Amino acid sequence: MANNKYLKKNLWFFPLGTVGRDMLYQLFTNYILLYVLFTRQLTAAQLMAITVSMVLARIFDAVNDPIMGNIIERTRTKWGKYKPWLLIGIITTSIVVYLAFSVRLQGWAFVVFFAVIYFLYSITYTMHDIAYWGMVPSLGSDGHSRDQFTSRATLFAGIGATIAGILIPMFTTGSMTIGGNAQVAYSTVALAFSILGPIFLLFTIVGVKEDRSYMTEKAPKVSLNKIITTIKNNDQLIWVSIIFLIQQIGLNLILGGIGSTYIYFTFGYEGGLYSTFSTIGVLATAFLMVFYPAISQKINRKTLMKYMLIMSLTFYTILLISGLFLPNTMLKFWIVTISYMFTNLGQYSYYLIMMISIINTVEYNEYKNGNRDEAIIASLRPFLTKFSSAIVVMLTSLSYLMFGITNITNQISSFEQQTNLGFISEAEKLSSIKSVLSGVNRFQSAGLLFVMCLLPAVLMALSYFLYKKHYILDEVEYERIVKELERGKV
Predict the structure, then answer these.
(1) CB atoms within 10 A of CB 309
(2) C-alpha span between 185 and 35 (Å, rounded)
(3) 212 and 1 in contact (C-beta within 8 Å)?
(4) Per-residue pLDDT tens for 273-300?
(5) Which tens digits make up the pLDDT trace of 384-434?
(6) What share of the chain in percent tops pLDDT 70?
(7) What is the 3-state secondary structure (H, E, C) of the chain?
(8) Angstrom distance (rounded) from CA 412 to CA 410
(9) Does the structure show a pLDDT above 70 at 313?
(10) Share of the chain above pLDDT 90, in %
(11) DSSP assignment of 166-181, as one string?
């Protein structure tokens, strides 16, 4: 079978393709709000308008993602059904991301532009994201190969996100800011990532060979009813989607803006500090992504989730206590950073397990309903990821308003704009920002700390108990279903 013949090559070319995609995703999803806060002076009404536009874009994705999945499902070209959308999607996404960080509008004009560009991003990113992850079932049909492709692709996605997480704050905040101000810096970084995204995805488009037996089948009819029916008739897909959404909110809350603002407010406006925090924070996940296939052979998913929950809750507690009671020294910074690393290890193990659990509902759908509907099922994962990011943005914005954070960021934005216009020097900007940050009170820093510790811990625990109770496709049941399907095809 083709997917066995090309397995070794695919195990490199498929995951390499996502490195640039995730650099773009990291920039747009985790830094767009920071970019807005540190380059625009916003009223509370304007910040809430931006937040609402992001949430509405995610609601739009509720329809757009499954429809895109269905469109991909019925695509028939000599390049297959996935690769045309990979190419179209990554090129248009790159253009949209560059424009998002380069237009220099202010006030309500910027708010309107932001709403439009955010909706465009939702459409363009969906094209290649659903196509990319939708390919996995066509690369391997057994559980072990699925684990290999999913874990390795997640590892390389993490590499792309980590590289972005190092470079973005380092070159947009503090003494190493490109061009001396945030506006020029973010625009330059966006241009670089918009070039790298398509280059990396060419590894997948050109190098990957998938099983195209689906090409002999009649293309299914695109209809909203088909999408709704597929989801409604797959109870395991519904449950794992709910659980995944809950877990994703907790996973992304720190990197979605709360963490960087806390680090800057507590330890200083220096991008290198947050680069260190975020990089070490995801460092341990590389071990998990490399060794997960081996771990999965020894420990079943629900048992692994229990161990990871205990570990994460322990380090969330250490993070909270050290953040509240230790003086703002480098010792505190390292305790906070290492604690975050271990909480993130647990959170990413959940993320990986949820990814595999969603993919495994393809065979369950075939077993129960007679259809695989791979692309429709795969489309729920990116939708849930993006919808969770919108909820994270809303929680972040509400936290900023509740704790008076925008009073600080508007002052920082003013100094960034003055530097961009040449009214003050970069040294004067940094000195002024340092003076502003000295006025951050304990209510503000402690408030951010509570949000980034307690909420993720509660959501992680909730996702574990729901998964344990309602998700029945464990390793044994999944293998039984696969064997039943194989016997039916003989």
Answers:
(1) 20
(2) 10
(3) no
(4) 999 998 888 777 777 767 777 887 889 9
(5) 887 888 888 889 989 999 999 989 999 999 999 899 888 899 899 999 999
(6) 93
(7) CHHHHCHHHHHHHHHHCHHHHHHHHHHHHHHHHHHHHHHCCCCHHHHHHHHHHHHHHHHHHHHHHHHHHHHHHHCCCCCCCCHHHHHHHHHHHHHHHHHHCCCCCCHHHHHHHHHHHHHHHHHHHHHHHHHHHHCHHHHCCCHHHHHHHHHHHHHHHHHHHHHHHHHHHHHHCHHHCHHHCHHHHHHHHHHHHHHHHHHHHHHHHHHCCCCCHHHHCCCCCCCHHHHHHHHHCCHHHHHHHHHHHHHHHHHHCHHHHHHHHHHHHHHCCCHHHHHHHHHHHHHHHHHHHHHHHHHHHHCCHHHHHHHHHHHHHHHHHHHHHHHHHCCCCHHHHHHHHHHHHHHHHHHHHHHHHHHHHHHCHHHHHHHHHCCCCHHHHHHHHHHHHHHHHHHHHHHHHHHHHHCCHHHHHHHHHHHHHHHHCCCCCHHHHHHHHHHHHCCCCHHHHHHHHHHHHHHHHHHHHHHHHHHHHHCCCCHHHHHHHHHHHHHHHC
(8) 5
(9) yes
(10) 52
(11) HHHHHHHSGGG-GGGS
Residue 207 confidence (pLDDT) above 80: yes
Q: What are phi and psi of 404, to 5 degrees?
A: 70, 30
- Three-class secondary structure of residue 153 per DSSP: helix
Phi/psi-derived region of residue 41, left when phi > 0, alpha when psi is between -120 and 50, beta in every other case: beta
> What are the angstrom distances between the C-alpha of 234 and each of 253, 283, 290, 322, 359?
29, 36, 31, 44, 12
Q: What is the pLDDT of residues 125-173, one digit of tens each?
A: 989 988 888 887 777 666 667 667 877 888 898 889 889 988 999 999 9
The model carries a pTM of 0.80
CA distances in angstroms from 235 to 58, 68, 238, 355, 379, listed in the order given: 23, 22, 5, 16, 16
Backbone φ and ψ for 141, nearest 5 degrees, come out as: -105, -15
Placement of tokens 């947009």 in the chain = 172
Q: 315 is written with which tokens?
A: 């380090």
Say if CB 230 and CB 365 are below 8 A apart: yes
Q: Which two tokens stand for residue 160?
A: 């792309």
